[in-house]
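Example 196, ligand S-adenosylmethionine.
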Amino acid sequence: MSFDGVAWFYDWLATLVFGSQWNQVQQAPAENLTGKRRVLIVGGGTGILLNKILGVERIVFLELSEKMIAKTQARCLHPQVDYVYADFFQWQTSEKFDAIVMPFFLDCFGPEKLEMAIIKARELLVQDGELHVIDFQPASHWKNAQIRLMYLFFRIFSGLEGKALLNIDRLVRKIFFAQKSEVLFTRGWIFYRVYS
Ligand SMILES: C[S@@+](CC[C@H](N)C(=O)[O-])C[C@H]1O[C@@H](n2cnc3c(N)ncnc32)[C@H](O)[C@@H]1O
């Protein structure tokens, strides 16, 4: 899977589909992250969230796409960001984080890797750490049809591994996390949940 080929038009496409709400969705975690010591952003894409995060000691921005990292670096004003070009599943670190943000990252995978990603997130968090997830959930027939189209599009243009939208929320809760807060966008199609 590589998002390099879509990085140059990714924001344009997202704004076309979601309109002006796109920035709002992307930046939703910013307030909740204020004051955290260490934050890890996994699959952060073009980094729309970064400039809105304040008062964080250290941010690790981990991405598998070099082109996405380049786009993020061009827009990011944060001095505390460490960019890591790596596969989250292969990445080794002894560092623990107060919060991990996964914006539209978990929907990239099939059931096995989805579970692996959540388990790895749990291992990388400090004891009272938080997992911040922004993603899709099943909604109306029309929106579910749009999701299927998006999967097809990204399977063709970026080799997306996931074939269909899974119940991310159910799995996150099953693997130990309890929901702390929730914000819904686009009539419940997109959720932003904080789990701890
Ligand atoms: C669907 S895009 C989401 C981008 C952005 N976070 C957003 O909200 O629009 C998924 C992102 O995850 C990255 N990604 C996919 N697999 C990854 C992996 N194994 N490790 C790190 N990043 C990965 C991709 O390069 C891509 O930028």
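Summary: The mean pLDDT is 96.
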